[in-house]
Amino acid sequence: MKNGNSNGLTEREKDILDFEQSWWSLSVPREQAVRDRFQLTETEYDELLEVLIATEAALEAEPLLVRRLRRMKDRRRQEHVARRTAAQEVK
């Protein structure tokens, strides 16, 4: 449910973006921080984050963060494809 903010993000979506900017400075592991703050598993949170960073509203709200997260996602995907390709060539 959207909240009528001019940037089109819900409070939860803004909270997720805020968390992504600072979770590394917390004294607990990311997985625990996600569970404590959002009551989600890390997998559920990562799925929400992936959908969120694909939106224009997120890009407009936090362009540097969203571009960095998109690059990281693309890099992980490329590494995954490279590993699968290498594993298939070995067979």
- Category by helix and strand content: mainly alpha
Helix segment count? 5
Elements, N to C (H/E): HHHHH
Per DSSP E runs of 2 or more residues, the count of β-strands stands at 0
Q: What's the shape? A: globular
**Cα-based radius of gyration, to the nearest Å:** 16 Å
Helix content: over 70%
**Uncertain parts:** none
Strand content: under 5%
Number of domains: 1
- Report the biggest beta sheet as strand number plus sense, adding barrel if it closes: none
Separation of the first and last Cα atoms: 48 Å
**Mean pLDDT, nearest integer?**
89
Task: Tag the structure with descriptive keywords.
5 helices; 74% helix; mainly alpha; 91 residues
Describe this structure in words.
The protein has 91 residues and is mainly alpha-helical. The chain is 74% helix and 0% strand. It has 5 helices and no strands. The longest helix is centred in the last third of the chain and has 28 residues, at 63-90. The mean pLDDT is 89.
